[in-house]
Amino acid sequence: CPDRKTKEHVCVLCTNNEGCEMQVLRPNNSAEHYVCIIERHNGSSKYLCPDCGHRFQGTPQRIIAHKLGIHGRGVAPCKHELKEQEQADLKKMQDEMAHRFKPRGPRIHTANVPESA
To answer: Which of 36, 77, 81, 91 could cross-link 24 (Cys pair, CB 3.0–4.6 Å)?
Structure first.
């Protein structure tokens, strides 16, 4: 992956410590620095985790869920243990996104109900 920090940091798909033989895209946001971006399609992208080799499609929220091992987001947790700083950075991103994208509450439909006599 082009996002390798050192020569020793290679993804599980690399052979002979030479790097992946796939074309990856540049990250658009801070969460994408933790994965390799394989494809982009209308706000949803295909990712490859360089640490565990898991491929998945989604948004930055799913990257964070994968790396932090959060269940219930439709993506398998990463098998690689994060460093303390990486974990702190991802948790901070998760908190920022939670404030930006607040889930909607239940919709309450009010109907005109005739009063009975």
So the answer is: 36
Predicted structure pTM score? 0.66
Residue with tokens 């790097």: 19
Closest CA to 25 of 14, 38, 16, 35: 38
Length of the chain: 117
The token pair at 19 is 């790097």
First to last CA, the chain: 73
Written as tens digits, the pLDDT of the chain (117 aa) is 544 555 555 555 555 555 555 667 888 889 999 998 888 888 778 998 988 888 899 988 999 999 999 988 889 999 999 999 999 999 999 998 877 766 566 666 666 666 665
Which residues fall within 8 angstroms of residue 81, CB to CB, at 6 or more apart?
Answer: none
The CA–CA distances, whole Å, from 6 to 17, 29, 38, 111 equal 11, 21, 21, 62
Tell me if residue 55 falls in helix, strand or coil. strand
